[in-house]
Amino acid sequence: MTRIDGTVAIVTGGNRDLGKVLVDELFARGAAKVYAAARDPRTVTDPRAMPLAVDVRVLVNNGGGHLLNVHSVLPWPAISGSYSAPKSSPADVVRLALDAVEAGAHEGLADDVSRRVKAGLSGELGALYPQLAAS
Known about the structure:
Blueprint: E1 8-12, H1 17-28, E2 33-38, E3 50-53, E4 69-71, H2 76-80, H3 90-102, E5 107-109, H4 112-121, H5 125-128, H6 130-134
Parallel strand pairs: 1-2, 2-3, 4-5
Helix pairs in contact: 1-3
């Protein structure tokens, strides 16, 4: 298990959208310091966060810290945009992700659609895509 309280964290894209919500929730859970990475550090508006200028396409965690993959079948613009399917709020996704970190998990599934897709990946193709089974 990884305790967030008193820890130091880095959030890529910490200046907007889901990353900004992650920064806020990390502080709410007692993080001692949060680096908010952004291409333009002037766009980091949370005064508690340490802006960090990055232009990264590949992130390698070689320091032994906790790494979590958050999976969502829906693209992030769909989470906050006008996509008509049921969706989780960014705050719900962040809570799920940080609960997973504190539980020692290395994966978080952001919504029910993602959970169904993951469960179906090991099953028959027709179970994941019923429209294909009918043809």
